[in-house]
């Protein structure tokens, strides 16, 4: 049966309209003109319905964000109620609204490290952009204007603005866009499969990567390096789980040179790893924290920069030199987003969805290993809590990648979709990811893994004929 979109517009018409006028992010533009979209019109729990009536299990919670699942009546009510009471007011020039004030206090209280203030934005990208500006401002106020370099990691993902696309360590975000900005540096990803000799222990790998960071800092001149930014698990860059001791070793280097740590908790924050924060799981001690996505389970766009007292005191003192803090967005502290976040956090706490993510996470990690770990074309199964990835290789031992031109990862994601499961092929490797809503049921999670397994069978059969 044809599923109608808004206003009863049918599948074919929607498809034509999108081909004619859609300009999609991270999309092969010419291919899209020819092939059109997968048009989603409804979501409930983990299930999505497309405009042609087909249904899918969403193994990615959208883009790692719909943590409480789609279609929550409670969220709809809370957002509608806020819309009726106060649909908008800005937060410039000391103006405030009650809901975002309550949210800021709640975030400070629940943060994984001592934090003092919260600056709201609309996306993970603009929040990390704000973090960079705050770090520069901080060093200007401190009278050390040469401290401007930001170090991030290859295959880290921190956004797409002119500044943050450079922080993101993925070539396809740089190519053709004249980024990274000149003050950005990258170090290696802590990825055992490609960055360590077989037999290297976690302790050795962590020590080596920390030594490389220190060598870079010394080569650049420590007095020029302002901050290091890292996701606890590098999500979009491949679901890269750091070796034990990594962040402890990195943290020691940063403290030695008085370099700030920005923890990008956009994916890991609010329970994805089976604990409230990735920083708790991996021992980060950040000065600044970025959140987005799971803060509202993506019901309304919202991001936030959590700022420690150490940084805040300097920023606040900056007023005597620079006047009013000249940064902010029309939609900073938007009350609809704040109401959505407060209700989302209520739901997560009341329904113990972090505990649920831990439980289903244990199932996910076990099933991924049972189903994929011994497959001759699987180089690595990795993950933690309710986030995981399966990386395909042409040969296992020693590991050899497929020719990227064969787009094996992307083909697997498409094949899984034919089996009713939406996963995501990650850039820079032939990996597909799992990051389902925390409300995923045990049978749904099994079905997601099975869908990808059937997809892999299809792709392997296809490859054998090439
Ligand atoms: C860790 C991380 N930081 C930042 C961002 C950017 O967020 P947005 O797409 O909301 O700008 C993302 C997006 O996937 C992310 O995964």
Commentary on this structure:
The chain is built from 17 helices and 15 strands. With 466 residues, the chain is α/β, with parallel strands linked by helices. The protein folds into two domains: 38-71 and 353-464, Aspartate Aminotransferase, domain 1; 75-350, 3-Layer(aba) Sandwich (Aspartate Aminotransferase, domain 2). Strands 4-10-9-8-7-5-6 form a seven-stranded mixed sheet, with helices on both faces. Helix 6 (124-141) crosses helix 12 (309-317). It starts with 10 loop residues before the first helix and ends with a helix. The relative contact order is 0.14. Pyridoxal-5'-phosphate is lined by residues 63, 123-125, 128, 157-159, 231, 235-236, 264, 266-267, 292. Residues 63, 123-125, 128, 157-159, 231, 235-236, 264, 266-267, 292 line the site of pyridoxal-5'-phosphate.
List the helices and strands and how they pair.
Blueprint: H1 11-21, H2 29-35, E1 40-44, E2 47-50, E3 55-58, H3 61-64, H4 73-85, H5 98-110, E4 117-121, H6 124-141, E5 149-153, H7 164-167, E6 184-187, H8 192-195, H9 202-220, E7 225-230, H10 246-256, E8 260-264, H11 278-282, E9 288-291, E10 303-307, H12 309-317, H13 319-322, H14 335-350, H15 353-372, E11 378-384, E12 387-392, H16 408-418, E13 421-422, E14 424-426, E15 431-434, H17 442-464
Parallel strand pairs: 3-13, 5-6, 5-7, 7-8, 8-9
Antiparallel strand pairs: 1-2, 2-3, 4-10, 9-10, 11-12, 12-15, 14-15
The structure holds pyridoxal-5'-phosphate.
The site of pyridoxal-5'-phosphate (PLP) has 15 residues, from α6.
